[in-house]
UniProtKB/TrEMBL annotation, chain A:
Source taxonomy: Eukaryota, Viridiplantae, Streptophyta, Embryophyta, Tracheophyta
Pfam families: F-box
SMART domains: FBOX
Descriptive protein name: F-box domain-containing protein
Residue ranges annotated for the F-box domain, each copy included: 20-61
InterPro entries: F-box-like_dom_sf, F-box_dom, SCF_F-box_component
Highest taxon above the source species: Eukaryota
PANTHER family in the record: BNACNNG10540D PROTEIN, F-BOX PROTEIN CPR30-LIKE
UniProtKB/TrEMBL annotation, chain B:
Signal peptide (UniProt feature, chain positions): none
Protein name per Swiss-Prot or TrEMBL: SKP1-like protein
Organism whose genome encodes this protein: Erythranthe guttata
UniProt similarity note: Belongs to the SKP1 family.
Quaternary structure (record): Part of a SCF (SKP1-cullin-F-box) protein ligase complex.
Pathway assigned to this chain's UniProt record: Protein modification; protein ubiquitination
Pfam families: Skp1, Skp1_POZ
One Gene Ontology biological process: SCF-dependent proteasomal ubiquitin-dependent protein catabolic process
Length: 151, 163
């Protein structure tokens, strides 16, 4: 019997022993329509978190959710911390460069230079003044991958 | 060993709980695992399928028969698959995805895994843990941190329906 810590602290939860191997779970997760679900399931367990952070799922997911707009999100830099990026809801219709509406303006990286296949190229207006933070931020909302490029 | 002119047209499949099923070879070879056995000449007698129980095998055979009766029309095949899977509960779907994997039936594997994903889409993390039998190995602090990082993804989650 697998010990189960219920999310609501429920006692005596019945656990069906897991017999679905990780490679099949990976296939199932790659078929989720929404990145939102995929990211929520990072909370299931550490191994699911690792699985979901795995690039294979994301490339599958990118393919299969190409036609599912409305669940994109955008990262924002958190100054001075190592927490990396937090997620911001991102309302999207047809994406065109310069026409993207963002619910919360990302901290610092508030200019969207261009978008391609869900990949955003962001920059900071302060970048021009403060050389230190003159980065472009590439962030793929579906792939949950970001990297900074020094200008 | 199958003779060149005497390849059987009906195969007998045996589940891991010793149920026997007759199925047309033309339908059964949708399973690459079975097809390989037939091609290797190992399908003369009873084909034991050690990883599939009788209940699941019966369902898979229904699918094999149903889908192979449909001519090459992808729309109709898709609508058959949708209908076939529409009334299956999670446990049945989980058994079927394992069977489809073992039998190497890519069309069923695709359809069942997509169906499971569809069922999961708005489910809570707790529901997923229970259904997949996943132990939560986060400490409460770690779990809270991961949840906080993806806070918005918890909006619109359905109330659990499995209690």
């Amino acid at each position: 019997m697998v010990h189960y810590y219920g999310i609501h602290g429920t006692e005596s939860e019945k656990i069906i022993p897991s017999n679905i191997p990780p490679e099949i779970i990976e296939i199932i997760l790659s078929k989720l329509s929404y990145a939102k679900s995929l990211l929520r399931f990072k909370t299931v367990s550490k191994s699911w978190n690792t699985l979901i952070s795995n690039s294979f799922i994301h490339s599958n997911h990118l393919q299969s959710s190409d036609n599912s707009p409305g669940n994109l999100f955008l990262s924002t830099d958190t100054y001075g911390t190592d927490r990396g990026f937090t997620l911001v809801k991102f309302e999207v219709g047809n994406i065109h460069s310069g026409e993207i509406s963002v619910e919360n303006i990302p901290n610092g990286y508030d200019r969207i230079l261009c978008e391609c296949n869900g990949l955003l190229l962001l920059t900071s207006i302060y970048g021009e003044k403060l050389e230190k933070s003159a980065y472009n931020v590439h962030y793929n909302p579906k792939k949950d991958i970001e990297c900074k490029t020094k200008l | 060993m199958a003779a060149e002119t005497g390849t059987p047209t009906t195969l007998t499949l045996k589940s891991n709980d010793d149920e026997l099923f007759s199925v047309a070879e033309s339908a059964a070879i949708l399973s690459v695992t079975i097809r390989n056995m037939v091609e290797d000449g190992c399908a003369g007698g009873v084909i034991p399928l050690d990883n599939v129980d009788g209940k699941t095998l019966a369902s898979v055979i229904t699918y094999m028969n149903g889908i192979s009766a449909i001519p090459a029309d992808e729309e109709k095949k898709k609508s058959y698959r949708d209908k076939f899977l529409s009334d299956k509960d999670f446990e049945t779907l989980a058994d079927m995805v394992l069977a489809a994997n073992y039998l190497n039936m890519s069309c069923l594997m695709d359809a069942v895994s997509a169906k499971i994903a569809q069922v999961m889409e708005k489910k809570s993390v707790g529901w997923v843990r229970r259904k997949f039998g996943i132990e939560n190995d986060y400490t409460p602090e770690e779990e809270a941190a991961v949840k906080e990082e993806h806070k918005w993804t918890f909006e619109g989650v359905e109330t659990d329906d499995d209690n």
